[in-house]
Amino acid sequence: MSQPVRLPFDPIARAAELWEDRWGERSHAVSMASATSIMRVQQLLLGRFDAIAGRHGLTFARYEALVLLAFSREGRLSMSRIGERLMVHPTSATNIVQRLAAQGFVERVPNPADRRGAFAVITDTGRAAMEAVTAELEAADFGLGMLDADQHATLFSLLRTVRVGARDFDA
To answer: Which pLDDT belongs to residue 116?
Structure first.
């Protein structure tokens, strides 16, 4: 995959200047620049995470599902719980699990409490792939190695405030 061309200026800062020039409201220009910056950083991080996970036959979304299963008490979760925790549509959760099952990273087992449902259970192979990706993500400092501990704490606090304000979870 080729690297995108690096611009000789910050396009988001320039967009904020143009926004303010056109609509005259500095606070809206700053909000737009912040929101756009968050989305751009998400793109950059996801690209890097997908590249790391891809070296182990995974996408970052499938890696997240494996981590979720590894964190569960019994190493298994229902499709609905996976979708809920990953914050994706149940169909997307089922698709993720089907792909992981095809790779041998999870097994689908019947849910005795729900004849129509199934549990996804992480396999030893899935656990090994998840651990390998985790080691690489940690070695890459999750793409945020340019921040110090105080900056990490500030960033997390600011983004948490946005998540609470959007009612992402019960604070």
So the answer is: 83
Token code pair at residue 68: 């979720």
- Contact yes or no for 53/133 (Cβ under 8 A): yes
For 160, phi then psi, to 5°, come to: -65, -40
Convert 100-127 to b/e letters by CB count within 10 Å (16 or more is b). bbeeebbbbeeeeeeeeebbbbbbeebb
- Could you give the number of structural domains in the chain? 1
The packing angle between helices 124-139 and 26-54, to 10°, is: 130
By the 8 A CB rule, do 122 and 69 touch? Answer: yes
Look up the domain containing 19 and give its range: 7-54
The answer to whether residue 84 sits within a structural domain is no
Q: Mean of the pLDDT values across residues 37-59?
A: 97
Asked, for residue 96, whether it belongs to a domain, the answer is no
Alpha-carbon torsion angle 48, 158, 67, 84, nearest 10: -120
Residue 60 near residue 68 (C-beta atoms within 8 A): no
- How distant, in Å, are the alpha carbons of 3, 53, 88, 106, 119 from that of 47? 11, 10, 19, 24, 29
Q: pTM for this structure?
A: 0.88
Q: What mean pLDDT comes out for the span 125-134?
A: 98
As a residue count, the chain comes to 171
